[in-house]
Design a protein that fits this description.
alpha/beta, UDP-n-acetylglucosamine1-carboxyvinyl-transferase, Chain, four-stranded mixed beta sheet, 23 strands, globular, binds shikimate-3-phosphate, binds phosphoenolpyruvate, EC 2.5.1.19, amino-acid biosynthesis, Enolpyruvate_Tfrase_dom
Length: 435
């Protein structure tokens, strides 16, 4: 597919106000929980990205009535027990979240289904979800003993487990909790590093009793979800690209409004603060389950830092753009404990290092992250996206400081999480304001 995009070297100030599209993690869950619930659910600010559209199409194949009107979605369901068995495969596209959370949901249902995704999904590890689900009694088979898609799920009555997570993963945690809501008994999930907690927050919103304290989450099985209203904040993972752009471009100021500021997701803000970025944060909405606010960032003199430990799950998807940020910081930035990057849409350690090197960055891969030395003047060139939206956007943002134009190959993959990304990049580079 020839869908490359060339960005002229910008090197001028960036200015403007943006409202980034809805949070991807929350958008997925709003559809899943609305489909599981009895009654009517409305969603505001839904992300019309390819991944979330895959989630909608899977539930429509299960017979759930889902109406999309712009970024508002209405879901009418009689609960899981009334889903119909699909005669077609459920296509989860490029979405790890859809694939893994649906495994947990479908394992406890009454139906048979087959989950298939794209080439990237076929390489991503599913054993981490299948293993705990099988301990609950799930009947799942797939390639290599159920490690990879396509995966066939024969729904059955599940039993609760007490499970200690071997990896910090909100997808694994959520799959177990969503199976747990349907199981006999109390399911306990223990995490040593806290991962995003949207599932816990949203289950509460749907009327489910759930306890979460000090990394121990417990849910009693047999509870019924009740339809509700979900307000989706802007995605901080999308905002991250413009936070970095504003910090590294000269004489710039970018304001991002209506962004989700859930503390399990704001590692990027911690990193920018530790690097010395000029930033203002206002939390202006705490009436919904998820805190929402505005972040303004200005061109900054940045210094290299060490990023690792329990900060990693709080910024895992932002690491590609953080690596770009580090190329413009004074000193050395070390990113460690981030081996999970190897099993995302692509191996993001290799992809980031290879592509930033093409622009002249001083960056080297390590077993669990990367080491970046800065500041370095970035050149231009032809970059690969590897079909990975976050790698594509990292390359595009590099053009705000590069000396020559940057071509991004297969840039259409960016619509997985940020369909109007290039429009927003144009807005901040030409002083317009979007409301
Ligand atoms: O639960 C979620 O919505 C997500 C969890 C993270 O994945 P892991 O659970 O694999 O860390 C993240 O990388 C992904 O983009 C979305
Ligand atoms: C890893 C990501 O998503 P998923 O796991 O849902 O494919 C991402 O959006 O960066």
């Amino acid at each position: 597919m020839n869908d490359s995009i060339t960005l002229q070297a910008h090197q001028s100030p960036l200015n403007g106000t943006l409202r980034v599209p809805g949070d991807k993690s929350i958008s997925h869950r709003s559809i899943m929980f609305g489909a599981m619930a009895k009654g009517h659910t409305t969603v505001n600010g839904f992300l019309l990205g390819d991944d979330c559209l895959s989630t909608i199409s899977c539930f429509q194949k299960l017979g759930v009535d889902i109406q999309v009107n712009g970024t508002t979605v209405a879901i009418n369901s009689n609960g899981i027990k009334n889903w119909k068995e699909p005669i077609d495969i459920l296509d989860t596209g490029n979405s790890g979240t859809t694939t893994r959370l649906m495994l947990g949901i479908l394992a406890g249902s009454h139906i048979h289904s087959v989950l298939v995704g794209d080439e990237s999904i076929a390489k991503r590890p599913m054993k981490r979800v299948i293993e705990p689900l099988r301990l609950m009694g799930a009947q799942i088979s797939g390639r290599s003993g159920g490690q990879f898609t396509p995966l066939a799920v024969q729904g059955s009555q599940l039993s609760a487990i007490d499970y200690t997570m071997p990896v910090a993963s909100a997808q694994v945690k959520s799959a177990i909790l969503l199976a747990g809501v349907q199981a006999n008994g109390v399911t306990t999930v223990r995490e040593s590093e806290v991962s995003r907690d949207h599932t816990e927050r949203m289950l509460r919103q749907f009327g489910v009793g759930i306890k979460a304290e000090n990394g121990v989450i417990q849910v009693q099985g047999g509870q019924t979800l009740r339809g509700t209203h979900v307000e989706v904040p802007g995605d901080i993972s999308s905002a991250a690209f413009f936070l970095v752009a504003g910090a590294i471009a000269k004489e710039s100021s970018i304001r991002l409004e209506h962004v989700g500021l859930n503390p399990t997701r704001t590692g990027i803000i911690d990193v920018l603060q530790q690097m010395g970025a000029q930033m203002e944060i206002e939390v202006n909405d705490t009436k919904h389950e998820e805190p929402i606010g505005s972040v303004t960032i200005k061109s900054s003199h940045l210094k290299g830092i060490e990023i690792g430990g329990d900060l990693i799950p709080r910024l895992i998807d932002e690491i590609p753009v953080i690596a770009l940020l580090a190329t413009q910081a004074h000193g050395t930035t070390v990113i460690k404990n981030a081996e999970e990057l190897k099993v995302k849409e692509t191996d993001r350690i290799t992809a980031v290092v290879e592509e930033l090197k093409k622009l002249g960055a001083d960056i080297e891969a390590t077993d669990d992250g990367m080491i970046i030395k800065g500041p370095v003047t970035l050149s231009g060139g032809k970059l690969q996206s590897y079909g990975d939206h976050r790698i594509g956007m990292m390359g595009a943002i590099a053009s705000v400081v590069s000396t020559h134009s940057i071509e991004i190959e297969h840039a259409s993959c960016i619509s997985v999480s940020y369909p109007n990304f290039f429009e927003h990049l144009r807005i901040v580079s030409s002083f317009e304001t979007l409301r």
